[in-house]
Inverse folding.
């Protein structure tokens, strides 16, 4: 069991890392260590006992508490803030007991209890030994007979080793331009990142990496964490007056309150964290393996080549137009045909129809079954787009239930893309959607659902809420998980895609339900390189849906566009009817090529060799887990002449064994390819995909 209880407290060990905590002399649960695994459980530092030397420098301010509540003379950002029924806004949690639970994963539970009020908190630490990851979450219980209001409840405070200066890496972006990497030094004060939009990730991702300022892709100490939550979240990276650095993550406390009734329990989402000496690449690979093996519902099966008709036909869908596309797609080797928006009742444009999830009678007079059967006969599976959380005011659903949307009765309901948000915090709305979507899935041979969410929140009112209406932020996400989870249970073989106008809902919470993420509505391939690189910091290629479309077609060669999409789960989204036979034949060749390498892309280790966010000449490499096969992708956008492309130094090969690389004569050792590198000749907008094979 990788959890040790010693005189000094507790030690959680993974394959190469360790995390230690314990009680200090003041009886506070404090952080002791997070870094490389040491030889013996007694090797870890003891619990720190900061002394006091002035009224303004109280020890509480300098104590690295594992889960600080808002109390005492301390001004660090606390994890927990509550108001008791008598108005006391002060939570004094002290150690009560600890238990170690065997199981997969093993878990340490530390029970804390308020010194005055019948209020308890349990800190959960789960250890994923082989993935070098630790999961933290918190549950609190109201054991009294009066309600308690929770105003902040975060999942974890992660302490960086004391005495260091840290650099924060995070991702920023927006719709059509997600996931740009930023690295900035952390100095005294708080750096806040958050979502207040109801979804998680268009603008910032609930993820960070911290290093000493010198880590790179291959080497250097990196501490990293993600929050598995698909709603509003907050990340607070704080450097205290005494130079200690801590990063807290959790549900956003902005406009949040939760009335915890007597006997009730509140559970936070999980924060997963890890430490590596293998740089940012090492951190990503830890997350990739964990997500693929542990979270994804279908992470161990190959994800299929998709055709999606959105960019081709938009709302103008009917059986004929889709069959025409399906026939061409099947001939190219596509395995899954996805009918996007426009198929349901009254949906001729984006101002009507959302909410009415049955086939439009004019476009599909005989329902969807004839199209699905046709698609199946062509040898493809069939997938469908839905946007269940939304409603257009021009819909049967809204006319019947105008009170079902988020709103304040006295205020106008702000529309975005002509739509309003259903309040899926309400169980009646959840039940309605479960019923509608269940019927759709039960009545049709659908194996893939693209779940979209195309706006951000406004007027987050919940008239008639039983508890505090500000619970809506959390209950909405719980509602989402319930709807989706119920449908998953009833239709376990369906693959789901999480889309919110691109990567608006890309997080580890949704990846327990969805297998794939729509990375961006921007499919222009040069922009996509950068977006995909950002995405790959957190998510494995198997989740990264990447279509070849017509965006950028005027200036980016078709081959380049295919190569970009082959770096993830390949899809096609162009207008196939408008493609020439030659173009379709070329696409078919790349699809066939992809099928030969996708086991490496989808299940292998990713090495980012040169960053497309930093260089016009970029490269990445996937290596199979047994290191027998690999694939190299390289891209050149625009470089002013004369340009000399630097060598690419491969990674992840066995240094002592010989490898052959397509396009290069003779085998060389892994060490030679990694240290000596290889040179490619590429013109502007040139690209290459090269298979690498170990030779016996
Ligand atoms: C969003 C999605 C697109 C497409 C449209 C349909 O923008 O990101 O891929 O599904 O909605 O309306």
């Amino acid at each position: 069991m990788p959890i040790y209880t010693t005189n000094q407290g507790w030690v959680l060990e993974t394959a190469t890392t360790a995390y230690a905590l314990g009680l200090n002399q003041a009886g506070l649960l404090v952080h002791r260590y997070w870094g490389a695994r040491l030889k013996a459980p007694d090797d870890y530092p003891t619990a720190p006992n900061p002394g006091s030397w002035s009224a303004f420098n109280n020890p509480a301010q300098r104590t690295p508490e594992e889960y600080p509540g808002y109390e005492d003379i301390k001004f660090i950002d606390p994890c927990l803030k509550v108001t008791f029924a008598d108005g006391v806004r002060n939570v004094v949690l002290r150690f009560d007991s600890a238990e170690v639970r065997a199981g997969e994963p093993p878990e340490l539970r530390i029970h804390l209890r308020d010194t005055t009020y019948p209020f308890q908190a349990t800190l959960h630490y789960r250890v994923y030994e082989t993935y070098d990851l630790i999961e933290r979450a918190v549950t609190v219980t109201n054991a009294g007979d009066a309600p308690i209001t929770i105003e902040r409840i975060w999942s974890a405070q992660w302490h960086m080793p004391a005495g260091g200066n840290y650099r924060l890496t995070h991702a920023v972006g927006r719709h059509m331009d997600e996931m740009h990497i930023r690295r900035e030094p952390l100095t005294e004060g708080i750096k806040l990142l958050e979502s207040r939009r109801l979804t998680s990730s268009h603008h910032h991702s609930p993820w960070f990496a911290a290093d000493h300022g010198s880590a790179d892709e291959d080497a250097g100490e990196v501490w990293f964490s993600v929050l598995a939550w698909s709603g509003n979240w907050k990340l607070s990276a704080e450097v205290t007056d005494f130079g200690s650095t801590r990063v807290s993550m959790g549900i956003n406390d902005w406009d949040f309150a939760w009335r915890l009734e007597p006997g009730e329990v509140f559970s936070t989402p999980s924060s997963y964290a890890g430490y590596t000496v293998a740089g940012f690449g090492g951190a990503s690979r830890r997350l990739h393996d964990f997500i693929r093996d542990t979270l994804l519902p279908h992470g161990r099966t190959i994800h299929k080549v998709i055709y999606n008709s959105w960019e081709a036909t938009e709302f103008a869908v009917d059986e004929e137009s889709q069959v025409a596309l399906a026939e061409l797609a099947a001939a190219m080797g596509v395995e899954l045909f996805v009918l996007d928006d426009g198929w349901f009742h009254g949906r001729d444009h984006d101002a009507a129809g959302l909410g009415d999830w049955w086939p439009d009678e004019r476009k599909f007079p005989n329902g969807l079954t004839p199209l699905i059967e046709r698609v199946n006969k062509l040898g493809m599976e069939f997938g469908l787009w839905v946007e269940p959380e939304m409603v257009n005011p021009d819909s049967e659903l809204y006319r019947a239930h105008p009170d079902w949307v988020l709103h304040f009765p006295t205020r106008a309901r702000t529309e975005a893309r002509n739509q309003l948000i259903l309040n899926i915090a309400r169980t009646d709305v959840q039940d309605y959607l479960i019923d509608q979507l269940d019927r759709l899935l039960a009545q049709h041979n659908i194996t893939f659902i693209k779940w979209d969410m195309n706006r951000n929140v406004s007027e987050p009112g919940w008239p008639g809420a039983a508890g505090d209406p500000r619970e809506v932020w959390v209950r909405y996400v719980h509602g989402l998980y319930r709807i989706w989870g119920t449908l998953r249970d009833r239709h376990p073989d369906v693959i789901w895609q999480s889309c919110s106008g691109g990567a608006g809902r890309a997080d580890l919470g949704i990846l327990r339900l969805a297998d794939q993420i729509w990375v961006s509505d921007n499919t222009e391939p040069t922009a996509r390189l950068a977006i995909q690189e950002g995405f790959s910091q957190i998510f494995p290629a198997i989740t990264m849906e990447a279509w070849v479309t017509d965006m950028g077609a005027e200036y980016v060669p078709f081959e380049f566009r295919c190569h970009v999409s082959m770096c993830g789960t390949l899809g096609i989204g162009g207008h196939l009817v408008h493609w020439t036979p030659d173009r379709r034949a070329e696409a078919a060749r790349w699809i066939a090529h992809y099928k030969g390498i996708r086991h490496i892309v989808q299940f292998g280790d990713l090495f980012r060799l040169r960053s497309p966010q930093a260089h016009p000449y970029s490269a990445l490499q996937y290596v199979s887990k047994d290191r027998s096969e690999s694939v190299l992708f390289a891209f050149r956008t625009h470089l002013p002449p004369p340009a000399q492309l630097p060598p690419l130094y491969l990674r992840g090969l066995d240094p002592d064994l010989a490898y052959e690389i397509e396009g290069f004569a003779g085998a060389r050792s892994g060490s030679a390819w990694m240290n000596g590198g290889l040179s490619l000749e590429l013109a502007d907008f040139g690209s290459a995909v090269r298979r690498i094979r170990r030779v016996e």
